[in-house]
């Protein structure tokens, strides 16, 4: 029996639903080649960070231009950066190279929250040859005057601007922290986004109790993180026509299966590839194929969403009661 | 007539300075470029390196190979070799660098090798160093055999570069092409460019073939560099005469061919002015511009005057020279921009006189000679006129100076300083800026905008002060319809801008404002309060000169645009708006284009923010209604406090006001000897924020005081009795340690920490190192930075009280880091960069041994902040003792310091001998002087007491020996000699000397302030530059590990060696300095010094030092040969094995990040190499630290 693993993502026809998510893996062309050889369905570029771009530029302006022409003997302190690109040039060049080298779709990734000059990079990413663009909307509002509505309004504004500037399809990568994710997702769809990536994984601060300082950490994902994604994929997939990606917590072929069952069109993998190398993708693809064969599914499409909120036998399992039940069962187990 | 800007072809005009113009030609006509940086020629080499790195090709389609050498001597040796083997070479230099090239220059000329050396002519160091321009360096090269071609302007510098490269190939005589340092090398001017086609049309190929036919090659072997004997040397030396004889005609022919291609006709000597002049001035270099302007002005008024510009000084073509002199000439004044003490006259004067004598014309002409313009001293039309006036006197001075007031030997000519002849159609603008605000950069852009878009001629010249923090820049911009030849500062400006209001309190900014001029001020005061906020003197000037006064709060606008304090775009927009040089819309468009050109490489965010600043500017620019009566301002404060010594009041203060030009000769020391301890009178008040102390939170560790680069935050123990007279705001708390027992009055010592509010630069290092956080609010530390204005006056009163407190007894202070900060720093308030990483080491050294210290200081940052006038940071204690400091040269510092040691030792030996001989005449107790130990403060104090007593006794004795010993008795107290310098000195140019001195076993100590780059000249790589760092001459990131200087010194086995990083482990730094001082032989201490050239916020300097150590990039160690005798390995590692990666350290500094941003993959490779190198070095050191050699004792047991 031939199993049809193909799927669509952002309107792109993919040979199967598995590929590496946004990460530094793509910085090295040799690694990109190994990802493609391992069977990746697409290549996602690492995120081009608004914060990083702006910080680099302003730092260069401050520390190179600031002290320039201040002393008679030293008109500058470092070589002229005439051919140093403190913008996205290297990033764009990497997209071009990957496009030339690979036959699979290449998806750009842009990270930022505020409308501004950096949005023009979306256009540049498109011009460099990306087939689609993933827009990462990470934001952490700490201003008490900023309401949830304000934050959503600002983010929709960014999406609208990007949408207007490019013709390639746009995915939006979200954090799970919204008052009503379904309502916001509906607005995203209305604004023209073609897909959602659930979810962003964030740097979390840790406290050094000795030095009274903060430490920024980012651990590789583990399988526990998958469950949050499964729940929201299950809730959102019946509500939206956008294609959905599961990102975070996929370490095993069965994790891919679960993501697809919850409604994902694709599964993005980073931590497992970082830990095990590009061949991890082969393992996941073959594992998925094996599961489908074993369970007599004919295609990914047949499987997708069969356990979402609209179709699973007990939808309340995804809802709040789940929490109560889990505690009760845990309490009950503890008694024994 | 002087060559104008006429062109026979369509000419492309460009606006640039002479350094760039000359480098552009030299690069295109060379195959190999060997370099060494030196001001003001560095930029030529740097341009070549950047072009080479960018793959720019020469005229023959090749990328010239650009190589940085270890010294100018090395660069000259390299080009000598290049020439011998048949490739086209060039180099660039100035001043002492030129002197270092002399040996090879004689050889290159003797071997008739075609070669051009481009020199931005600079003053030679004599009684003092000067980075500025005159001809003393090139004139010292007269006997090398090089042809010497002098350019007088930016245009000529470019053109003569081409002419000299062509003429050297044709003539086989090497050329020294020179132009005035700074005045021409750094002057922006609009010139006609030389295109590649023009260079090709000079048709050099046949001459190049002839040159290559003469090369050394084993395919047709030849030999050069023979040793010759008396029988033949002389004749052989004369054998090349005909080449020198033919050279002038070849140069003229080349000039003629060049004219045919460009329309710019030059001659070896060229006369201008009246067709039948009676009085002539002969000169060369940039001063010609002022002479030409004055001559034209005088001729229009009917005076028969003229001038002759000398282009080809060597070989001096007598026939061509006299041909320029019409029979009408009766009097000649020859001006030399150099001084040759003891000579009949200066070099050009002597040549002119000899030429006239040889041609029989001397009887008909009276010739006088004068010096002008040494060290870029101003040379103005007023001075030119004074020279003509002198010629008109019945008995003119045969030898004179002009431009100064010589009230000692009365050689100087007086002149009318108010004389101004600049044409009214020339717009003149002067801008006062702060070093870090972008004023000069934006003015350079303005000149280019005007030169390229307004269809006007344009000139820019920029003046910098000698400070590296809080420096003031002055920009002089001229533009107008006529070519601008005014090679002097603007005297009557139609536009004056002050980009930083406090400058008005220190400088007479409006002195050169013309009546009716526009005055633009950046101030936080609103327009209706701005006038009253001005110092009274400035208010008067605004009213009396009827100035049009406008204000803007540029810092606020820049802040609003997200640019911090970078106000260049704001002020540039104001200039165009007020000056009207371009229509408003066009001006804004050009400024935006300029922003894109300048900052586009930084990225769109920077560009957008500057655009925003431009947009916000006009709405915030306000005209001030000048009242008819003075406002409520205060007079400008005196430059120095009234209690300052007389010399400081009379001389130093005048220089500080920017009026040093007014000081007469008599004001100066005759031999370059200056008093120390004068920075304390400067009180520059440049900090925007000051550290404030929470005495309750403080743990009294003194780390803030230790790290302060400017000795501006100090701790002190105060007798509680003294607190009675303290200001009410003065903070002190009980001293938490019992180390020093009770205070003299019997109570508990009070601990005080005080900032010098007018000397702090606000770097924030003290806050960063402060370990004491408020446990409830960790953001608050025992020291926080706070805005200066609300606390300045309070802290001034507190500092005044603190300053007069006595320091604790040195002999009672413990031997730890904390205690060192109770010792008086004898290095304070230098002009070093805010956050400097070098100065804390020097300051600590002076706290340890400053009262008995002699310093030999290599040229570089530490000599500039250590000894650049007007003020000196080395100071004295209450006994009048303190560091005696001198800078000899860059290359010889170790030898110089060794010489200091030899002299100290010689006097100590003589004094000991004399004391021994006088024993019978002196009380027996004085014999102890000869054997007394001086190993610690107590021992030294005791010896000083003995010597004081001895001197009293000697004064009573008769006899020559007693008198001699009386003079030398202080030599019997131990002296410390330290050799201080940067890595450029220690690793590169001075390495040979340092190596030799360390090998002598002498009791000298070297402190290497290692910034891993040539900091003072602007960030060129040294052999200390670390793997992975971008620096000039290693643009793509250095791929070779830094030299292990310490390991090389360890190889002698008799030298104490330490590697320290105060920010990482201050106790180890202290220990190393003390051990080095105590070691009975040579010592080398290599001190990691963070630097502005590393491109990050220097308040994080100590954190970066920690990361450098913990990543193994900068290992800490001490190597003490004495340990061998104890059966121990001499090497002790003071830092653990690397626990961080190179990335953890390198990611935070711009010098590494630039490499990453240019080529991330290469950067990753360099990171791996850096880690591998750190591991390799560690492994080697661990083996060395484990070495056990059998001691004599063990061997015999």
DSSP, total strands of chain B: 36
- Binned strand content of chain B: 15-25%
Order of helices and strands of chain A: EEEHEEHHEHEHEHEEEHEHEHHHH
State the end-to-end CA separation of chain A.
47 Å
The overall average pLDDT of chain A, rounded, is 88
Radius of gyration of chain A: 22 Å
**Radius of gyration of chain B over alpha carbons?**
32 Å
Q: What is the CATH T-level topology of the largest domain in chain B? A: Rossmann fold
How many DSSP H or I helices of chain A?
A: 12
DSSP helix fraction of chain B: 25-40%
Biggest β-sheet description of chain A: 9 strands, parallel
Class computed from helices, strands and strand pairing of chain B: alpha/beta
What is the molecular shape of chain B? globular
Mean pLDDT of chain B: 95
Structural class of chain A: alpha/beta
Shape of chain A, please? globular
What does this structure look like?
The complex is a heterodimer of chains A (336) and B (1197). Chain A has 336 residues and is of the alpha/beta class. Helices cover 41% and strands 15% of the residues of chain A. In chain A, strands 3, 4, 5, 6, 7, 8, 9, 12 and 13 form a 9-stranded parallel β-sheet that branches. In chain A, strands 1-2 form a two-stranded antiparallel sheet. Chain A starts with 6 loop residues before the first strand and ends with a helix. Chain B has 1197 residues and is of the alpha/beta class. In chain B, 37% of the residues lie in helices and 16% in strands. Chain B is built from 41 helices and 36 strands. In chain B, the strands form 6 sheets. Chain B has a 9-stranded mixed β-sheet with strand order 1-8-18-19-17-20-21-22-23, with helices on both faces. An 8-stranded mixed β-sheet of chain B has the order 30-29-31-32-34-33-35-36, with helices on both faces. A 7-stranded mixed β-sheet of chain B has the order 3-2-4-5-7-6-12, sandwiched between helices. Mean pLDDT of chain B is 95; it is low at 1-8. The interface between A and B is large, with 43 and 65 residues.
């Amino acid at each position: 029996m031939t199993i049809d693993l193909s799927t669509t993502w952002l309107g792109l026809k993919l040979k199967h639903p598995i590929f590496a998510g946004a990460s530094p893996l793509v910085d090295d062309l040799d690694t990109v080649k190994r990802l493609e050889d391992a069977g990746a369905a697409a290549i996602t570029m690492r995120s081009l960070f608004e914060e990083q771009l702006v910080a680099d530029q302003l730092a260069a302006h401050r520390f190179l231009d600031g002290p320039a022409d201040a002393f008679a003997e030293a008109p500058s302190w470092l070589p002229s950066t005439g051919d140093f690109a403190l913008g996205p040039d290297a990033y764009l060049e990497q997209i071009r190279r990957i496009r030339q080298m690979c036959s699979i779709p290449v998806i750009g990734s842009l990270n930022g929250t505020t409308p501004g000059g950096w949005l023009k990079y979306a256009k540049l990413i498109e011009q460099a040859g990306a087939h689609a663009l993933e827009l990462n909307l990470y934001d952490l509002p700490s201003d008490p005057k900023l309401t949830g509505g304000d934050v959503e309004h600002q983010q929709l504004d960014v999406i609208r601007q990007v949408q207007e500037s490019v013709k390639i399809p746009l995915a939006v990568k979200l954090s799970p922290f919204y008052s009503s994710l379904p309502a916001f997702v509906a607005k995203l769809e209305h604004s023209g986004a073609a897909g959602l990536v659930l979810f962003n994984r964030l740097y979390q601060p840790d406290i050094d109790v000795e030095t009274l300082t903060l430490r920024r950490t980012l651990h590789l994902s583990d399988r526990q993180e998958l469950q949050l994604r499964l729940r929201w994929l299950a809730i959102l997939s019946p509500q939206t026509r956008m294609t959905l990606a599961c990102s975070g917590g996929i370490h095993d072929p069965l994790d891919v299966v679960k993501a697809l069952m919850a409604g994902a069109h694709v599964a993005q993998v980073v931590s497992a590839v970082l830990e095990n190398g590009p061949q991890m993708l082969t393992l996941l693809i073959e594992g998925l194929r094996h599961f489908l064969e074993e369970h007599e599914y004919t295609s990914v499409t047949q499987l997708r969403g069969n356990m979402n909120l609209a179709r699973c036998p007990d939808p309340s399992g995804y809802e709040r009661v789940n929490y109560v039940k889990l505690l009760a069962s845990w309490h009950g187990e503890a008694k024994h | 007539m002087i060559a104008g800007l006429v062109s026979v072809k369509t000419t492309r005009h460009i606006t640039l300075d002479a350094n760039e113009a000359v480098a552009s030609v030299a690069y295109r006509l060379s195959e190999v470029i060997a370099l060494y940086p030196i001001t003001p020629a560095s930029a030529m080499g740097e341009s070549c390196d950047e072009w080479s790195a960018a793959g720019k090709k020469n005229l023959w389609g090749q990328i010239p190979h650009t190589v940085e050498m270890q010294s100018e001597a090395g660069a000259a040796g390299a080009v000598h070799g290049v020439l011998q083997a048949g490739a086209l070479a060039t180099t660039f230099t100035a001043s002492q660098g030129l002197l270092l090239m002399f040996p090879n220059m004689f050889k290159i000329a003797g071997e008739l090798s075609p070669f051009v050396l481009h020199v931005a002519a600079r003053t030679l160091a004599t009684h003092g160093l000067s980075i500025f321009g005159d001809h003393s360096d090139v004139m010292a090269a007269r006997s090398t055999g090089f042809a010497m071609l002098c350019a007088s302007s930016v245009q000529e510098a470019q053109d003569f570069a081409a002419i000299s490269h062509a003429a050297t190939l044709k003539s086989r005589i090497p050329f020294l092409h020179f132009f005035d340092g700074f005045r021409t090398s750094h002057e922006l001017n609009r010139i006609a460019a030389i295109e590649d086609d023009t260079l090709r049309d000079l048709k050099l190929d046949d001459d190049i073939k002839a040159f290559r036919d003469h090369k050394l090659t084993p395919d047709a072997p030849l030999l050069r560099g023979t040793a010759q004997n008396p029988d033949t040397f002389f004749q052989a030396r004369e054998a090349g005469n005909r080449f020198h004889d033919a050279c002038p005609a070849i140069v003229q022919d080349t000039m003629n061919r060049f004219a045919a291609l460009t329309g710019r006709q030059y001659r070896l000597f060229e006369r201008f002015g009246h067709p039948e002049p009676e009085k002539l001035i002969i000169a060369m270099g940039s001063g010609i511009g002022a002479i030409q302007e004055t001559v034209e002005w005088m001729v229009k008024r009917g005076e028969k005057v003229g001038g002759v510009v000398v282009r080809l000084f060597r070989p001096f073509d007598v026939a061509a020279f006299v041909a320029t002199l019409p029979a009408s000439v009766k009097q000649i004044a020859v001006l030399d921009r150099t001084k040759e003490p003891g000579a009949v006259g200066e070099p050009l004067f002597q040549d002119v006189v000899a030429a006239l004598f040889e041609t029989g014309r001397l009887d008909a002409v009276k010739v006088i000679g004068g010096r002008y313009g040494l060290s870029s001293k101003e040379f103005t039309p007023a001075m030119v006129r004074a020279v003509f006036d002198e010629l008109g006197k019945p008995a003119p001075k045969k030898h004179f100076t002009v431009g100064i007031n010589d009230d000692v030997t009365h050689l100087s000519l007086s002149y009318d300083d108010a004389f101004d002849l600049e044409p009214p159609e020339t717009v003149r603008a002067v801008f006062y800026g702060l070093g870090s605000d972008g004023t000069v950069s934006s003015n350079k852009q303005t000149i280019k905008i005007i030169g390229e878009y307004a269809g006007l001629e344009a000139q820019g010249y920029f003046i910098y002060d000698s400070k590296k923090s809080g420096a003031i820049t002055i920009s002089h911009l001229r533009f107008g319809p006529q070519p601008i030849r005014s090679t002097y500062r603007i005297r009557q400006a139609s536009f004056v801008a002050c980009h930083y209001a406090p400058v008005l309190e220190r400088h007479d900014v409006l002195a050169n404002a013309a009546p009716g001029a526009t005055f633009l001020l950046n101030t936080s005061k609103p327009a209706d309060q701005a006038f009253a906020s001005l110092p009274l003197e400035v208010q008067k000037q605004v009213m009396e000169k009827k100035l049009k006064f406008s204000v803007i709060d540029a810092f606020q606008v820049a802040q609003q645009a997200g640019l911090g304090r970078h106000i260049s775009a704001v002020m540039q927009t104001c200039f165009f708006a007020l000056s009207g040089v371009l229509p408003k819309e066009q001006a804004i468009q050009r400024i935006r284009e300029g922003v894109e050109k300048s900052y586009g490489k930084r990225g769109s965010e920077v560009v957008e923010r500057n655009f925003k600043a431009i947009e916000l500017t006009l709405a915030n620019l306000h005209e001030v209604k000048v009242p008819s009566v003075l406002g409520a301002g205060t007079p400008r404060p005196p430059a120095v406090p009234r209690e300052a010594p007389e010399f400081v009041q009379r001389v130093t203060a005048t220089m500080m006001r920017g009026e040093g030009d007014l000081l007469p000769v008599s004001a100066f020391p005759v031999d370059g000897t200056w008093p120390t301890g004068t920075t304390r009178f400067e009180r520059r008040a440049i900090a925007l924020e000051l550290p404030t102390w929470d005495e309750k939170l403080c743990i009294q560790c003194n780390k803030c005081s230790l790290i302060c680069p400017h000795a501006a935050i100090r701790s002190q123990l105060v007798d509680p009795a003294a607190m009675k007279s303290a200001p009410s705001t003065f903070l002190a708390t009980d001293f938490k340690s019992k180390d020093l027992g009770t205070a003299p009055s019997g109570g508990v010592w009070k601990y005080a920490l005080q900032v010098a509010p007018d000397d702090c630069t606000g770097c924030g290092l003290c806050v960063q190192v402060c370990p004491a956080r408020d446990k409830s609010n960790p953001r608050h530390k025992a020291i926080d930075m706070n805005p200066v204005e609300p606390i300045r006056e309070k802290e001034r009163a507190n500092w005044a009280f603190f300053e007069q407190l006595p320091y604790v007894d040195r002999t009672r202070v413990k031997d730890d880091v904390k205690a060192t900060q109770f010792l008086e720093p004898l290095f304070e308030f230098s002009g070093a960069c805010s956050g400097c990483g070098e100065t804390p080491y020097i300051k600590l050294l002076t706290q340890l041994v400053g009262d008995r210290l002699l310093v030999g200081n290599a040229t570089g940052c530490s000599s500039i902040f250590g000894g650049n006038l007007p003020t000196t940071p080395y100071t004295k204690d209450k006994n009048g003792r303190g560091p005696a400091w001198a800078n000899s040269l860059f290359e010889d510092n170790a030898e110089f310091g060794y010489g200091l040691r030899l002299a100290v030792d010689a006097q100590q030996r003589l004094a000991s001998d004399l004391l021994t001989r006088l024993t019978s005449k002196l009380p027996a107790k004085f014999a102890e002087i000869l054997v007394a130990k001086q190993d610690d403060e107590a021992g030294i104090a005791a010896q000083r007491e003995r010597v004081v007593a001895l001197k009293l006794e000697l004064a009573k004795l008769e006899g020559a020996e007693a008198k001699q010993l009386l003079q030398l008795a202080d030599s019997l107290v131990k002296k410390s000699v330290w050799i201080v310098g940067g890595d450029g000195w220690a690793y590169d140019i001075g390495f040979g000397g340092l190596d030799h001195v360390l090998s002598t076993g002498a009791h000298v100590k070297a402190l290497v302030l290692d910034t891993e780059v040539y900091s003072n000249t602007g960030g060129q790589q040294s052999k200390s530059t670390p793997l992975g760092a971008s620096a000039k001459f290693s643009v793509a990131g250095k791929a070779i590990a830094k030299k292990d200087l310490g390991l090389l010194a360890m190889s002698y086995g008799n030298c104490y060696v330490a590697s320290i990083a105060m920010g990482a482990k201050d106790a180890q730094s202290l220990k190393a300095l003390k051990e080095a001082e105590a070691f009975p032989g040579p010592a080398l201490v290599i001190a990691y010094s963070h630097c502005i050239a590393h491109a990050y916020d220097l308040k994080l300097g100590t954190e970066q030092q920690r990361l450098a150590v913990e990543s193994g990039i900068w290992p800490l160690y001490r190597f003490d040969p004495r340990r061998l005798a104890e059966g121990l390995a001499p090497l002790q590692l003071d830092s653990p094995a690397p626990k961080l990666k190179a990335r953890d350290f390198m990611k935070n500094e711009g010098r590494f990040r630039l490499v990453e941003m240019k080529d991330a993959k290469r950067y990753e490779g360099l990171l791996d190499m850096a880690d591998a190198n750190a591991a390799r070095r560690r492994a080697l050191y661990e083996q060395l630290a484990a070495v056990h050699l059998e001691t004599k004792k063990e061997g015999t047991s």
